[in-house]
Amino acid sequence: MNRRQLLKAMAAAAAAGSLPAIYSARALASNSAPSGFYDIPMQGDARILHITDVHGQLKPVYFREPNVNLGVGDAYGRAPHLVGKNFLKEMGIAENSPEAYAYTYLNFLEQAKKYGRTGGFAHVKTLLDRLREQAGGRQNTLTLDGGDLWQGSGTSLWTRGVDMVEASNILGIDVMVGHWEFTYREEEVLSNVALFKGDFIGQNVKILEDSLFGDEYYEMVERFDGRGLYDEDTGHAFQPYVMKEVNGARIAVVGQAFPRTSNANPKEFFPDWSFGLREDDMIELVEQIRAEEQPDAVILVSHNGMDVDIKMAERVPGLNAVFGGHTHDGVPQPIKVKNVDGNECWVTNAGSNGKFVGCMDFAIEGGQIKNMVYKQLPVITDWLEADKEMDAFISQMRQTKYDDKVIEARNKKWQNNPARVGKTYEEILSEKLAKADRTLYRRGNFMGTWDQVICNALRWEYKADIALSAGVRWGTTTLEGEWITMDDVMSQCATTYSETYVQEMTGKAIKDMLEGVADNLFDPDPYLQSGGDMVRVGGLDYTIDPTKPLGSRISDVILDDGRV
Q1: What is the CATH number of domain 41-389?
Q2: How far is 196 from 190, CA to CA, in rounded Å?
Q3: Mind listing the pLDDT tens digit for each residue in 517-530?
Q4: Which option is the CATH number for 431-564: 3.90.780.10, 3.90.640.10, 3.30.70.100, 1.10.20.140?
Q5: Cut 0.70: pTM above it
């Protein structure tokens, strides 16, 4: 009996007087959506649906939003850099509401027990189909993904992203961009793009000139029917934009991959590609699209991060809306930006882990947008029936057996785990490891309890004074008192290339490293930010002033034993 069947049985028992009224009322109230919660009648001619930063999470999850999300410069004190009650006040959300649970950390454990898990692709599919139906059919909609879709779980690592590509096709993703998608090997990326039924685009992904002069790159792309060589003259590896007709409206969708991929991730995985903001190229491209394609709307699907998207929306004329990703910001209202051409561009970001679906309706008249309406919906799992096709795919995929061909590390010594060979993915991932003595979460500018567990484990394993762990923003939440499973651990650690090791570092090197990471996060110019969080540390304390310049932010660096 699953949870939903149990609730139905409880309802029948309550009606017959077999259950205490207070118990049945609490259980039932928390597991049915308020009337009309997912009813969004079409308010226009074309509907754009948007998810982002799923990070391979096909199953429902808990995900605690940050209690610290600092903005610097112009971003100080404005969305997305608001948390808790300040966020609720700015967005007009009532405390202890379903939306407050979805968008903030407030009373998280209590609210999580009340409302349950969020996301899950079978439930996201149900919601997308409902929103498509409310728009008059899929032909009146366009579904976008903002990247970091095909990476981040045990199964996505073991299948090299193929599980997520197949799930993307069932979900009905029409257009997407990439970031961690590029950290599989180039041939694996092109294979995944070939399997994907939508359009994989990126105006800022270029082929290096040296690669265009040799034969190896051409031989590789020929094996994938030319994918990876969209335009030899411009150097675009993928389509920079795609035209879509939605209910008679001509909509141009421009793609922007994560611009700092070459800085943030090892180039050995994409030796032939370069990235970058390429703002000038974007301005020229949008101008060209407006002149040659005569679109009714031009939208950007982006993995810049929300602060970068806001700045780009101000500086690139001709954009109507931005559907962003990378920074995992669930923001229920669009940021309305005045463009250099005097027009308004709406900037949105749809969180992470399949927790939210963005929905924007365009009313189009005379070849231009006359009205825009935006709504973002939390995906509360128990309020949405599981789509049967997606549910069956996920269950079947997790019955795949781990074999000696699985690659789960870039170090050849550790590429395959012999202890797992012959077991199904489900058997491996459902292993219970320990019970959480507190709620374990990751998201936040400086530290999370999951990060502390990881750092403590590294120090213990390597007998190290200090542990350092990347400040990534994905990784699900485990509730206090619940079992920590291998699935939970893989959601924190299943990157495509991470390794653990021990080395000696001087105090100066450690401080310089902290300064460098802080500058990537807190530079007042969004174009110079990487969009992650501070490196996580164990065995070390420090003081930080994000408002100071590079070299002056970090002070009072002290080991746990008191040594400076």
Answers
A1: 3.60.21.10
A2: 10
A3: 999 899 999 999 88
A4: 3.90.780.10
A5: yes
